[in-house]
Every structure is written in C-alpha cells, then in structure tokens.
Write a structure and sequence with these properties.
Blueprint lengths: L2 E2 L2 H19 L3 H5 L7 E4 L2 E4 L1 H13 L1 E16 L2 E14 L2 E6 L1
Parallel strand pairs: 1-4
Antiparallel strand pairs: 2-3, 4-5, 5-6
Length: 106
C-alpha cells in the first residue's frame, strides 16, 4: 500500500505540498517559507542550503528570476508512524525566464 497512517496526517501533508506549490506559482515567498522547518535542509540543483532563513533567501533569488511558472506535485507514497513520515513526491515544473521557458521533472 502506498499510503499508510492516519488520514488526518496524510491530508495535512497533502495540504503542505499544495501550499508549497501555490507559494511557488504565486511567487509568494512568505507562503512558501511557511512550509519549511527552522532546521530544514533544501537540496536544489545539487546545492545544499541549511536553515529556513537561508532557504528563503536563496529561493527568493530564484523566484525573482522568472516571470511566471507552474509547479505541481503528486504524492506517490506517504507512510506515517507516530511522529515520523516518509514518502515520495513527484514534481512537474515549468518556468518562464528571460531567456525562455524551462521544464523540470523530478
């Protein structure tokens, strides 16, 4: 089974993913930043950024570099046991930069 654990927790994780996507698409760094823990680590294009403040600063540079974008995620699995969750998220991204559009799939 790809999804295990309390339904309420699984919905909360789904909503967190949706907020992340909405923050990216609306270029709302404040909304997007609410999806990160203070001690989070973001690995983006092979570069590790640690800490919520540093992540938001780095992501703001990226958000400022595109005029519009689409960012969608699909949870492939979510497993929750107690206070720990693991899972897999697939992403589809399309951004419009000054030099043209770029697609990202993960």
């Amino acid at each position: 089974m790809n999804f295990t654990g309390p339904v309420e927790d699984r919905i909360a994780i789904r909503e967190l993913c949706d907020q992340y996507c909405s923050g990216v698409m609306s270029k709302d760094a404040a909304m997007w930043s609410e999806t990160w823990a203070e001690d989070a680590e973001w690995i983006h294009t092979g570069i590790s950024t640690k800490g919520k403040a540093a992540i938001v600063a780095e992501s703001s540079k990226i958000m400022d570099s595109y005029s519009a974008g689409a960012f969608f995620s699909n949870l492939g699995s979510t497993h929750i046991t107690g206070h720990r969750a693991t899972g897999r998220c697939h992403q589809f991204e399309l951004f419009f930069f000054a030099n043209g559009p770029a697609w990202f799939l993960s």
